Amino acid sequence: MSAADDLPNIILIATDQQRSDCLGLAGHPVLQTPNLDFLGASGTHFRSAYAEAPSCIPARRTLISGQAPSANGMVGFQEGVAWDPPHTIAGELSKVGYQCEMVGKMHLFPQRKRYGFHRMALADSTRGPNNDYLDWLSGEVPTDRWAMAHGVSPNGWIARPSHLDETQTHSFWCISQAIEFLEKRDPEMPYFLYIGFIDPHPPLTPPAFYFDRYARQELPGPVIGDWVDPDFRPRKGQDPEGPETRADLALDDAAMHDFRAGYYGLINHVDDQVGRLVQYLRDTRLLDESFLLVTSDHGEMLGDHHMLAKAAGFDGAARIPFLARAPRSFGLPSGNVVDAPVGLQDVLATLVDVAGAEVPAAVTGRSVLPLMGGPSAGDVEWRDVLHGEHSPAYAGDYGMHYLVDGRMKYIWHTQSGREFFFDLAGATGEARNLVDDPEWSDHVASFRRRLVEILTDREEGFVDQGELVAGRPYRALTRPVTSGV
């Protein structure tokens, strides 16, 4: 018997900037994601999954290392930071005999560092040098950001159909590279395949078919909380570059409709490409021998509360898809739904657990495998809350910490001291801030005390004499601590 017969194959799929509610399985009224829905419905759908630091680089550090942001040392967005984590997913799996392949977006520094992978087909963007996707296109499109033929910002809200055919997109390339790896892998080794899509991160330029599918439909509008300035009105002249408008987005109905059509179109295109992979796995009899986990680095505010993009503690930015499908030999049920709070720090522990290896002590995440519906799933002791944070970033210039338990969420803005409390399981969700509602005061006080416990002794000085202190310096890089929730 070969090692490939002893250990399950593992595939990790990460989209970029996908909200948790942008799945048919999550009840989205128009978006079509049949392939992702199938993976979740034939395994476990974790409905309360969050990015602990909801922007690209800190989220990916959390994913790859299995460490909460405060433990891996990056609690906000900062580029160009060299990093040598004590453990990585690929590093741990390679130790126990896996062939480890990475395709697509990694977004870590230095760019070609392998972080335990044996080989990488790397394309962190659809522009710029040192890009395997653009090499594959063989010069058919300009590589410089300012010469992109569609003219759309890679960080903004403008949307239009792509000038490329759907067989020339980054998403198509990712799956083609993944299938090529599966065709040529060592047949006597189990494999770990990590596929990192760029989509649905802007530029919001899906192939024409996918843009048109949603542009011609009536689409759900953004959620505007009762805590938002009621005099806020759409206006012309906003900067199309997203980071300049993230906390002050005022689009008219037509622009908001196209914004959403482009975003949904990208997700639908990704889903169809995942369908190509699933069909290959089915045809080669690998589907039922593989553990598949699908998630995203963070979400997209998509106009909710007049906000764009990421780095906020609200569900649009922080809540993410998290779908897991185990091999048939594991004997786990299909159609399982879990509301316990999970995060990106749990991915490494989960995949190492799937491989039957020991989770390193430095990892703050936990394996979700016990939550996936086995006989003892109801007896699993899990974290009471998941903690997330992000240092001040983009136009909003506020930092935040949040706690979520699967039903309720507390957010504290570090610079202003503003608080939010939401009943996520209720009818109003994040449309109503309950922080001053007497009926919820005990819950608010409990969550506030819990955050004080977590932040006590942090180097920023967030806590003084048992109280949260606003306005403290809060930088993207911090001295790593050893615990996480």
Walk me through what this model shows:
- 50% of the residues are buried.
- The radius of gyration is 21 Å and the shape is globular.
- It contains 12 helices and 16 strands.
- The protein has an 8-stranded mixed β-sheet with strand order 5-4-6-1-7-8-2-9, with helices on both faces.
- It has helices at 3-6, 34-41, 56-65, 69-72, 89-95, 132-137, 170-184, 208-215, 253-283, 315-318, 346-354, 441-455; strands at 9-15, 44-46, 49-50, 99-104, 119-122, 191-196, 290-296, 322-325, 336-338, 342-343, 386-390, 400-404, 408-413, 419-423, 463-464, 467-468.
- It starts with a helix and ends in a 17-residue tail after the last strand.
Please specify the SSE layout and strand pairing.
Layout: H1 3-6, E1 9-15, H2 34-41, E2 44-46, E3 49-50, H3 56-65, H4 69-72, H5 89-95, E4 99-104, E5 119-122, H6 132-137, H7 170-184, E6 191-196, H8 208-215, H9 253-283, E7 290-296, H10 315-318, E8 322-325, E9 336-338, E10 342-343, H11 346-354, E11 386-390, E12 400-404, E13 408-413, E14 419-423, H12 441-455, E15 463-464, E16 467-468
Parallel strand pairs: 1-6, 1-7, 2-9, 3-10, 4-5, 4-6
Antiparallel strand pairs: 2-8, 7-8, 11-12, 12-13, 13-14, 15-16
Helix pairs in contact: 7-9, 8-9
- What is the overall shape? globular
The ordered string of helix (H) and strand (E) elements is HEHEEHHHEEHHEHHEHEEEHEEEEHEE
- N-end to C-end Cα span: 40 Å
Q: In terms of per-residue confidence, which ranges show pLDDT below 50 for 5 or more consecutive residues?
A: none
Content-based structural category = alpha/beta
Major sheet description: 8 strands, mixed
How much helix, percentage-wise, in residues?
Answer: 10-25%
* Cross-sheet strand order for the largest sheet: 5-4-6-1-7-8-2-9
Mean pLDDT: 93
Strand % is: 5-15%
Count all strands and give the number.
Answer: 16
Please report the number of helical segments: 12
Rg over CA atoms: 21 Å
